[in-house]
Each structure stands twice: as structure tokens, then as C-alpha cells.
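Bug #77: duplicate submission created two jobs. Keeping one. Sequence:
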Amino acid sequence: MYKDAFGLTENENLFDTISIKRMIEVIKNPDVEVTNVSRSTNNYGEFVFISLRNPKTKDAIFFYTFGYHELLNTYLLEKAKTGLGNYYDYDKKMDKKVALRKIMSFQKQAKKDAKKYSKEKHEPRDIMDMEMEELEEIGFI
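Kept job's structure:
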């Protein structure tokens, strides 16, 4: 089970949020391999994705963090969201020191981006409102 494979506690479930400090502890687990650290997008925005796997159990999870969460209208800077990964997505592991340096670099950049963003005025928007605005912009309605 993924909790045992990554040293997660009973209260740390997939699709929940954990602290960056705790995420780093999970990464440092000697049974865990880091397979990818990169900036990408999902349904909620652009984030840094950190993919992990445990070769002993063939389990995989990922974290996403250090980006603007559009639905929550906030930056993820001190927290990470978790998800279930695919063990076979990446065939090579990264050196953990290199991965951690890359993660810290992304965190530093995200803090700069968030600081710049916070100086601008932004209002939370409903998904339906967003779609309607886009339809209006292209003259559909």
C-alpha cells in the first residue's frame, strides 16, 4: 500500500495537502526514488510536479506545489498536494541531492512570482463565469 511504501502516516492521504517540510521528509526516505521534478500543468494551474516511486513495492505517488492554484485563487508555496502516480511513467531515477536543489530553486522562483502577483488585484472567479466570459470574448454569446 502506498502509505507504507512512502512512510506516510494514517492522516496523510492521497489528494490531501501536506507541508513542504513533510514532503521533503518523504523524499529523503531511503526506500523512495525521485523520478521527475519539472514544471507542468494540470486542471488547476501550472505547478512543479515531483514524481516518486518505491522500487520494492512498485508504488508511485506525486506531489504538485509551487504554483498558482486557479480554483483556490492562491499560490501553493508552503504546502503540496498529493496524487497517485504511475510506477512506469519514468524509467530513470534522479539523484536526490540534485532533485532537492531543483525543488528549492522552483520554490524560490514561486515565492518571487507570488510576491509579484500579490501586488496585482485579483478576484476569485467561478469556473462557469470563466467559461461564459471566454464565450463572450469570441462572440459566441
